[in-house]
Amino acid sequence: MKIQLFVLMQRLLDLFKNKYFLISTIFIVWLVFFDRNDLLSQYEYRQQLNKLKEEHEFYTKETAKVQQELSELTSNKEKLEKFAREKYLMKKPNEDVFVIVTEKKQEKKSIFSR
Question: d(Cα 1, Cα 8) in Å, to the nearest integer?
Answer without folding.
Answer: 11
